[in-house]
Amino acid sequence: MTDHALRLLRQDRRLAELAALPFGFDLDRAAHGHVEEVRLASGGPLETVAGDDAGGTYFVCADGSVLYADSEGAAGIIGSSVDEALELVIGLPGWRGCTRLSPDDGEEKILACVAETEDEIREYYGIDEERAELRAALGFPDRSPVELVGRLRAALMRTEPDFVLLNADEGCAYDRLGPAGPPLWETVLAAGRANLARLREGDHAAWREVAEDPVRRRITLRAAQFDRVEGDLELLRHLLRHETRSSMTDELRLAALLVGLRGDTGDLPLLHEVRETDFDTACGLGGMPEPGASADELRQWARELDESIFGTDPSDEPVSTWTDLARDQGMTELARVTLIRELDRIFMDQSALRRPDAPRTLATAPLSGLARDFEELGDLPQALRAQRLYAALQEKGWDRVSAGYTLARLEREADELSQAVDSLAAVRDVLATPGDDSLGYWQQVNLGRFIAEEHYRLTLALADAHRSEEARALLVAADAVLGELSDNAAKGVRELAERTAARVREVD
Question: Topology of domain 395-508, per CATH?
Fold first, then answer.
């Protein structure tokens, strides 16, 4: 990866002008930046090197790759270096019209598309002599449009997950420029399918290794969910026995029903042994037929569980299934990008949260789940985005308060102290006038303790930031909340309250 051609453009005004017009790689536009503030979801640096007359921008990433972002909210990698990107934009001056093309489309279709685009450009600008001059000066070979389209396709496919562009203020992701990659489930299941193939071959080492590794066991069971073979019964029994080590998981329930679907009543003792592993498994596998049940009863139980929770189409699984498994396999950025796009989808269409059985009611749990997922990934900006929408959609007093103090905690941890102060003020307003009877006993339960604790923790953060006046004011509010708690609820908060008061006095 080099920037030899970029250096030549910066040194030779004639070449720079040719690159800018008609090829749309204008070095002078770099000084103006992009149409909005942007950042990579992965957190890497971006250097603006050029722009075009349509408001698009060329960025160089940490590894030298060039990311192009248009002014309409789409972005993608177009080369592994500036030189490679320049060779593309010069060789395919209408490259943005080629982003959906693939070498699989065939030479005839590619050449026809490129010819049509270039003929449109020739109505306004000369490109043939200019292209030849630039190629010669920059040392670029005369590559065919078919080869350049193949290189563009390969570059665009590298965009996710490491080069996804975000609006810096709102946190939403740019659309993918060019083709969509494989669905997340396909990537996640690849290793599970390989494991399953080895198990089916009778590889004794694989039987041991897969069964003893919690992650490999889980993804292998998921692979078996979507590739059901009659001869898998013994390996499913093997995985079921070992999955009990993880207690009650979705995959334990999955393994149990896959065994039960065979209708072998000889498996009932094993299934009951698994169910009685601990309290959680006993609850999670409730409804299982008792010993002595018929094969039809066993199959019926398994089918009902399958239809209500699992199924045979991976695209029907909740996104969280695949993001959790992606994280477990170390595919952190892939999980993060998928979660961001899921949050964007909800922001753009909140009707996606409507309950099918009650269209006027929103099921907001996916938002709180997204907030937790982002927090576990260490992505506080996205966690805050999810939690703020979640808090705004709550209607009952209890839910508004619970969402509000959690929002304040995330804001405090993100060092957004003023916003956290406002969030806790909103919590106190709801406690004073809840609008319903859901908060009748908040002073006697953990909710009250959690609210008081967050008040004191934010007061400590304000004191540590030398915002003493705000710390004193919040300490008064914190003491007022503590004063309303029952003795039992307040018991675990008093030490924190005393430490906070001492810290505020120290700052004063």
Answer: 1.25.40
Token pair of 402 as six digits: 């619970």
Section 225-247 average pLDDT? 96
- Long-range contacts at 262-269 (CB < 8 A, ≥ 24 apart): 262/230, 262/233, 262/299, 263/295, 263/296, 263/298, 263/299, 264/233, 264/295, 264/298, 265/293, 265/294, 265/295, 265/298, 267/237, 267/298, 268/292, 268/293, 268/298
Q: Which phi and psi angles does 164 have, rounded to 5°?
A: -80, 130
| pTM of structure | 0.91
Angle between helices 446-464 and 468-484 (to 10 degrees): 170
54: left (phi over 0), alpha (psi -120 to 50) or beta: alpha
Q: Which two tokens stand for residue 433?
A: 């006038």
CA 223 from chain centre, in angstroms, equals: 22
User: Tell me: the pLDDT tens digits for 373-394?
Assistant: 999 999 999 999 999 999 999 9
Eight-class DSSP state of 312: S
Looking at residue 335, its amino acid is A
Each domain of the chain, given as residue ranges in start order, spans 4-176, 186-315, 395-508
Lowest-pLDDT choice from 24-33, 351-360, 404-413, 447-456: 351-360
